[in-house]
Amino acid sequence: MAEREIEFNRMSPMTFEPLFDAPLAVQIHVATVTPAALLGAYILLNPKGTPLHRLLGKIWMALMVVTATSSFFIHQISLIYGFSPIHLLSIATLFGSWNAVAAARRGDIRLHRRIVGGLYFGGIVLAGLFTLVPGRIMHRVVFTGAEWSAAFVAALIGAILVAIVLRSRRGAPIAR
Questions:
Q1: Residue 174 to residue 176: CA distance in whole angstroms
Q2: Are 46 and 75 in contact (CB under 8 A)?
Q3: Transmembrane ranges (predicted)?
Q4: CA distances (Å), 12 to each of 98, 143, 144, 150, 163, in order?
Q5: Which of 106, 141, 149, 173 is most enclosed, with most CB atoms within 10 A?
Q6: Is 67 within 8 Å of 36 (Cβ atoms)?
């Protein structure tokens, strides 16, 4: 028990140095996806259809488009001519963003809600979890030598997501 406490006390704190050393495209990507993750969670947990929801939704969608676009300039996992399967997610995000806005403007709120939920959970949460894999920049930023804590953080994120999904399913009907 004492050994674990000593090991925990010697852990390095989180550092942004790997991110500052990263290419500009990675820095832009992180600078837009981080507020998109926080804002998206706020939007998902609060009343829909209000003027505030519409304003924050426009800001969130712009952040998502910039995030997806910036990913095309990131080639750290180069499988096919500098691109990887994660770039397919960026294409899906761009098309999904367009379709989510179009669905909302048409009044097809169910489709809008499904697309936005997919963008958030697939494009931010799932893709974000993959950035925490050892060897990736965000893993070095968040864990800096604390390999054992990755599983704990993943479990915590999973629990938060389950809470968001359960709360949104029990929520009030969408106002127009």
A1: 7
A2: no
A3: 24-45, 57-74, 80-103, 115-133, 145-166
A4: 42, 8, 6, 14, 30
A5: 141
A6: yes
Q: CB neighbours of 125 closer than 8 A, spacing ≥ 6?
A: 37, 157, 161
Q: Which of 39, 29, 139 is nearest to 89 (CA)?
A: 29
Type of residue numbered 50: T
Residues 15, 138 contacting (CB under 8 angstroms):
no
In angstroms, rounded to a whole number, what is the distance separating the alpha carbons of residues 18 and 167? 36
Close Cβ partners of 65 (under 8 Å, ≥ 6 residues apart): 93, 94, 97
Distances (CA, A) of 154 to 64, 123, 158: 22, 16, 6
Two tokens, residue 174: 């969408």
Through-space distance between the first and last CA atoms of the chain, rounded to whole angstroms:
56
Q: Using 50, 70 and 90 to split pLDDT, how confident is the model at 176?
A: very low
Per-residue model confidence as pLDDT tens digits over 60-103? 999 999 999 998 888 766 666 666 777 788 999 999 999 999 99
Cα separation, 9 vs 165, in Å, equals 35
Angle between helices 24-45 and 51-71 (to 10 degrees): 150
- The pLDDT value given to residue 5: 52
